[in-house]
Automatic annotation (TrEMBL):
<keyword id="KW-0472">Membrane</keyword>
<feature type="transmembrane region" description="Helical">
    <location>
        <begin position="224"/>
        <end position="244"/>
    </location>
</feature>
<feature type="transmembrane region" description="Helical">
    <location>
        <begin position="318"/>
        <end position="335"/>
    </location>
</feature>
<keyword id="KW-0812">Transmembrane</keyword>
<dbReference type="GO" id="GO:0012505">
    <property type="term" value="C:endomembrane system"/>
</dbReference>
<dbReference type="GO" id="GO:0005886">
    <property type="term" value="C:plasma membrane"/>
</dbReference>
<feature type="transmembrane region" description="Helical">
    <location>
        <begin position="163"/>
        <end position="184"/>
    </location>
</feature>
<keyword id="KW-0406">Ion transport</keyword>
<protein>
    <submittedName>
        <fullName>S-type anion channel SLAH4-like</fullName>
    </submittedName>
</protein>
<keyword id="KW-1003">Cell membrane</keyword>
<dbReference type="InterPro" id="IPR030183">
    <property type="entry name" value="SLAC/SLAH"/>
</dbReference>
<dbReference type="Pfam" id="PF03595">
    <property type="entry name" value="SLAC1"/>
</dbReference>
<feature type="transmembrane region" description="Helical">
    <location>
        <begin position="139"/>
        <end position="157"/>
    </location>
</feature>
<feature type="transmembrane region" description="Helical">
    <location>
        <begin position="347"/>
        <end position="368"/>
    </location>
</feature>
<feature type="transmembrane region" description="Helical">
    <location>
        <begin position="96"/>
        <end position="118"/>
    </location>
</feature>
<feature type="transmembrane region" description="Helical">
    <location>
        <begin position="256"/>
        <end position="276"/>
    </location>
</feature>
<dbReference type="InterPro" id="IPR004695">
    <property type="entry name" value="SLAC1/Mae1/Ssu1/TehA"/>
</dbReference>
Length: 389
């Protein structure tokens, strides 16, 4: 009896009340829930910051394409005396359609600029790394090219007004500053520096000068236009020879962004348009640049295997197809206006329709697959450079 009485209290002491167990389980569950909510909130914050890290200046390809399309539609809708031209057909399209296209280009460009400004604020080390990247630094010209193209196609401002003049200077000055920075590196850096960093996207730097020269010529600033054109054409000749010879480093372009090869015919096409505005006539020099563009275009489209790997999955690099085609169509429009031949008008029609179709297809893909615009394997994302910065 005594042993049973001694064991009983010991047995009761080992048992815990049910309300204590319930309290422990409830506390543990609430703690786990709070930790889970904290993890979810942290993951959302990191995800937003990751988007800023993966976003880069290469996304201004979209604004380049849309602003180029706005300029193409404005050029085609201008009055003409050629009965065989495409322009009378374009003028049948309601004016509201062009205003909507221009507004879409403006909205896209403003959104991209704001997003990049936020990236500069919260991910400045990534911006510095991009500036040191042999591909990324070239797209720093893209927003200013887009603004100049949008300004030239605006239906709300007329050239030679004070606001137009101010905006033209505002968008051209960053191009000159970047020229001094990048061209200065090419000129003063070590031996074979250009041959190591040159790639097809380097042609955006000369395209920016040609766009600025064209804008200045349309404003009546002929000396400024000639200045920017001479800087652009001099570096284009050096760059074209460097890329043509394929030095060591020229083949370092990832397969994912091979659509930028289309920039090969965008540069002479824009040079053709710039010189047409400077000389006020589509002379022999313009025709030579236009024929060079056609040759380079034919050389690329006859080699679809070059772009096969880049076409396996949709990415923002696909937008690199649109802008060069649009610029080539613009050059074909000026050429057909000069020669007034049926073959020239047919060429203008084919290139313009192709440019519009490619842009529409890219807009549809972008709307249907927005998640593919920020891939984790984007070659622009260079964490090694970020650590160094």
């Amino acid at each position: 009896m005594e042993e049973r009485e001694l064991q009983k209290p010991h047995h009761v002491e080992l048992q815990k009340p049910h309300h204590v167990e319930l309290q422990i389980i409830t506390t543990s569950t609430s703690t786990t829930t709070s930790l889970t909510n904290l993890d979810v909130a942290t993951e959302k914050t990191l995800s937003k910051l990751s988007i800023l890290t993966r976003f880069h200046a290469g996304y201004f390809r979209i604004s380049l394409s849309l602003c180029g399309q706005a300029l193409l539609w404005k050029t085609l809708s201008e009055p003409t005396t050629d009965a065989h031209a495409l322009r009378p057909i374009i003028r049948m399209v309601p004016a509201a359609a062009f205003v909507m296209l221009w507004s879409l280009a403006l909205f896209t460009l403003v959104a991209l600029c704001l997003l990049y400004a936020v990236r500069c604020l919260f991910r400045f080390r990534s911006v510095r790394a991009e500036f040191a990247h042999h591909v990324g630094m070239n797209y720093l010209f893209a927003p200013w090219i887009s603004w100049l193209l949008l300004l030239q196609s605006t239906p709300f401002l007329r050239p030679n007004t004070k606001s137009y003049l101010l905006l033209c200077w505002l968008f051209s000055l960053p191009i000159l500053v970047l020229d001094v920075k990048i061209y200065g590196q090419w000129f003063t850096k070590g031996k074979k520096f250009l041959s190591m960093v040159a790639n097809p996207t380097s042609q955006i730097t000369v395209i920016a000068n040609f766009v600025g020269a064209r804008a200045a010529a349309q404003m009546g600033w002929r000396e400024t236009a000639v200045c920017m054109f001479s800087v652009g054409i001099a570096h284009y000749l050096v760059l074209f020879v460097t890329l043509y010879q394929r030095f060591l480093g020229s083949d370092s372009l990832p397969a994912m962004i091979r659509p930028v090869f289309f920039l090969f015919f965008a540069a002479p096409s824009m040079a053709c348009l710039a010189w047409d505005s400077i000389s006020s006539s589509f002379d022999t020099s313009c025709k030579m640049l236009f024929f060079l563009s056609l040759f380079l275009f034919a050389s690329l489209v006859s080699r679809p295997a070059l772009f096969r790997r880049s076409m396996r999955q949709f990415s923002v690099a696909w937008w690199a197809y649109s802008f060069p085609l649009t610029v080539l169509a613009l050059a074909a429009t000026k050429y057909s206006q000069e020669v007034k031949a049926e073959m020239a008008n047919l060429l203008m029609l084919l290139l313009s329709v192709l440019s519009v179709l490619v842009t529409l297809i890219l807009m549809v893909f972008t709307a249907l697959k927005p998640n593919d615009l920020l891939p984790h394997d984007d070659p622009f994302w260079c964490p090694n450079l970020i650590r160094k910065a």
